[in-house]
Design goal:
The chain is an alpha+beta fold. About 20% of the residues lie in helices and about 15% in strands. Strand 6 and strand 7 form a beta hairpin.
């Protein structure tokens, strides 16, 4: 244990000197902010299950998730599949018992500000939405889930969050999007009158960094699977992603949960989250994610990569062998007989933000930290990988010497 701790300290010092990955957020160059998204798979099968798991520091999966976060050390972090509860106790327990506790020699990390909000997952619809002849259960919820809040989202930040200006689109109805794509002859008019577009929610949360505001545009669209030839989930995934393109284009049809109409008001932003859509491979309708990446307000040129993803694709084979996308860009390790590994987790900054670097936490198998992501099913942490980017927020700051956002990113920020 002592040798392991010394190894981490020496590596952190060496990388801090090189300017590649400061050991602490405070030692980063002025104006450089690290932002991450991570589908943590910390969901639990019953209401209150996550809170119970996190109430003590002994949950092995939560320890692995926390260690990954401690290794990357983001300033702003979006966790998906983190069950929502109104009081936020699970978020506090995760901070207190996991993030604030050194995991396997990694330094604790503390986030002073958090945010979560209601999710459509598990909310009863009162209809037989999945056409199984019964009303009730996850398939008939407004967003798939066995109880309200399952598979929710949680935001952690070192910087203050402007809750008063937050916009959420949990209740915006799918049918109210012009050109929406719900499957024909599947939902009744009464069902469409109740069915929201977002399977969880869409958030525009402002964060104050010095004297500048950064908008965090967070969402987790439904997977384009677990349905039939009507492709109800694939179509919903498409339109959930399309909402951000329309929002950034100032769409007047959008109405948030507070009744405010219109799209994005302007400023710097990051579109973040597990979008459940690869621009090349997989079973989603690719044009929505392609349009978002290429949106005129988005800088989609930098793509985080890793050393471990191509190793995994080559070793696992199956669907991976027939894919066309660059395996270095994969962010999730899915069933190799069906989908294969895909790029589904995104951080898409506005064009006024300079990207200094980034990566996907998917270490190569020879890396000592591979134990956090490689292993038998279920994986030690999650079937998704944490994705991170460093962006230059302050006009007076500069990217670290030698950083090149056009080059292939390392597997994680300590390499």
């Amino acid at each position: 244990m002592i040798r392991d701790g010394v190894r981490h300290v020496v590596a952190a010092i060496a990388l801090a000197v090189a300017g590649l990955a400061p050991a602490t957020a405070a030692s980063r160059p002025t104006g450089v902010v690290r932002i991450a998204t991570f589908n943590s798979s910390l969901n639990r099968p019953t209401l209150g299950g996550l809170r119970a798991s996190l109430a003590t520091p002994g949950d092995a999966q939560a320890r692995a998730v926390a260690e990954i976060i401690q290794r990357v050390r983001p300033d702003i972090l979006l966790l998906e599949e983190f069950d929502y509860e109104p009081g936020g106790e699970s978020m506090r327990e995760f901070q207190r018992n996991y993030l604030s506790v050194a995991q396997h020699g990694a330094a604790p990390i503390d986030f002073a500000h958090t945010f979560s909000a209601e999710s459509n997952t598990g909310q009863p619809s009162g209809f037989d939405l999945d056409h199984d002849g019964q009303v009730g259960g996850g398939g008939d919820a407004l967003g798939f889930g066995e109880f309200p809040g399952q598979y929710g989202m949680a935001l952690f930040s070192r910087f203050p969050l402007d809750r008063a200006r937050a916009r959420t689109f949990q209740h915006f109805r799918w049918r109210d999007m012009p050109g929406a794509m719900p499957p024909e002859n599947w939902y009744t008019p009464e069902q469409l009158a109740a069915l929201p577009l977002s399977s969880k929610s869409h958030w525009d949360m402002s964060v104050r960094i010095g004297g500048r505001t950064l908008h965090l545009l967070a969402s987790h669209p439904t997977p384009p699977a677990f349905d039939g030839p009507e492709d109800r989930n694939g179509r919903r995934n498409h339109d959930e992603i399309r909402l951000w393109s329309d929002y950034l284009s100032g769409a007047s049809y959008l109405v948030d949960d507070a009744g405010r109409r219109g799209g994005f008001g302007g400023g710097s932003f990051i579109v973040m989250g597990d979008q459940n859509s690869d621009p090349v491979d997989g079973g989603s309708l690719h044009d929505a994610i392609e349009a978002l990446i290429k949106h005129p307000r988005i800088n989609g040129t930098f793509v985080p990569t890793s050393a471990g993803a191509p190793e995994a694709a080559a070793e696992q084979g199956g669907a991976n062998a027939t894919q066309h996308g660059d395996p270095r860009q994969d962010t999730a390790d899915f069933n190799d007989r069906v989908a294969g590994n895909l790029r589904v987790d995104y951080l898409l900054p506005s064009k006024d933000l300079r990207v200094c670097g980034g990566g996907v936490f998917w270490p190569a198998q020879a890396d000592p930290e591979a134990r956090l992501v490689w292993g038998d099913a279920p994986p030690p942490s999650s079937d998704h990988r944490l994705v991170w980017i460093d962006v230059l927020i302050s006009g007076r700051g500069r990217c670290p010497p030698g950083s090149d956002p056009t080059a292939s990113a390392p597997s994680h920020p300590r390499r």
